[in-house]
Write a structure and sequence with these properties.
about 190 residues; alpha/beta; five-stranded mixed sheet; four-stranded mixed sheet; about 25% helix; about 30% strand
Length: about 190
């Protein structure tokens, strides 16, 4: 029996750009781009320089170099960042000590309080609010607005825009024509 779940897949396609210009763009928009799959339709690794490729690897970003694009079809090489590659890069006898140290540091970072962002106004069309912490909005979310939170979301107003939540819970007002995604799954508007 086949079991499947729908997940939201987001990609950002780079169609042209100089190496340093692309690095500067990614650095400037890192908080938004870090969760996207980046697709490059131009070479990111050349004989003269591998700076863009090295930058993407150092930032642990997911990317594809897809040089052959025909009518919506792409083919190329994919590079996905993997969090659990520690064993392949470190000798086995030292991996356990480093792994326990990394886990304790991750626990400290996860337990660190993140600020709650609060808005007492309408979120207008075209506006994007992206936060790592919790988000509370006392107002309407207009169509075309984009709300994204790694923490919990509370919205006390009509929702016509798109809401993305990766926290533990959401408290929402009436959902109109907008979409609500909770951990990548589209929620039924009737719930």
């Amino acid at each position: 029996m086949v079991k499947a779940r729908q997940k939201n897949f987001r990609a950002f396609i780079f169609t042209q750009g100089e190496e340093q210009e692309t690095i500067a763009y990614i650095e400037k928009n890192f908080i938004l781009l870090k969760d996207f799959l980046m697709i490059f339709t131009y070479p990111i690794k050349t004989i003269d320089s591998t700076a863009l490729y090295d930058y993407l690897i150092s930032k642990n970003l997911n990317f594809i170099e897809s040089l052959n694009t025909k009518k919506g079809e792409t083919c190329g090489q994919i590079q996905l960042s993997l969090e659990n590659t520690i064993h392949s890069m470190i000798p086995p006898n030292t991996a356990k000590n480093i792994e326990s140290s990394v886990k304790s540091q991750e626990t400290e970072v996860k337990n660190a309080p993140k600020p709650t962002l609060v808005f007492h106004r309408t979120i207008r069309s075209g506006e994007e609010i992206i936060t790592q912490g919790d988000l509370t909005i006392f107002g309407r979310i207009n169509s075309g607005a984009h709300i994204q939170s790694e923490g919990n979301v509370q919205i006390f107003g009509k929702i016509s825009g798109n809401i993305f939540c990766n926290g533990d819970y959401m408290i929402l007002g009436k959902v109109g024509e907008g979409n609500v995604l909770f951990h990548g799954e589209i929620l039924d508007k009737e719930l």
